[in-house]
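Schema walk-through. Below, the input block comes first and the output block second. Nothing else is stored per chain. Lengths vary across the set, and this one has 206 residues.
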Amino acid sequence: MELILKYFPDLSEEQQQRFAALYDLYGEWNAKINVVSRKDFDQLYLRHVLHSLAIAKVCRFEAGARILDVGCGGGFPSVPLAILFPEAHFVAADSIRKKITVVEGVVGALGLTNIEPRCTRVEQIPEHFDYVVSRAVTAMPEFVGWIWHKIRRGQCGTLPNGILYLKGGDLAEELALTGKRWNLYDICSFFEEEFFETKKVVYTAK
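--- output ---
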């Protein structure tokens, strides 16, 4: 929890309580349904919560913004972002039922009303969103093909509406195949921990 306050010192009391509750909540759920690798569970705040919040260092969402998390797994990045941006609305989508069960349990226990877990394939989601977020679910050309038509033009945050994607490694070739113009943000420029050395937020506007 100290790690979150180090980079987000202006959290409200309620936000601090919700972030603090994540460790025990995910611990309980992970014992039943393994959604966070057991070998790095002790690093939950570093490798999952803070990593998710790197998106907030690139773009802050306005009240009323609608954000889709594709392949949310156990709720990353959408659960930490929903805590940080209580006035924005999130849809956390994953096609694997047991993962959405965990997200439902965590969201319910936290009393988060601005996030809607959905067990569905992204192709079956009918509505449009201001931003799409995700964490390394598939190769970028395939990902863009899934969601590009679901993003509406406009600006509901500090960047124009678009994709904010958490990914590591050498991305140049993969991003070039999408035919879009991308901005790459090194997470190590926001967070000093060694874990983030090769990790990036990649962004493109609609």
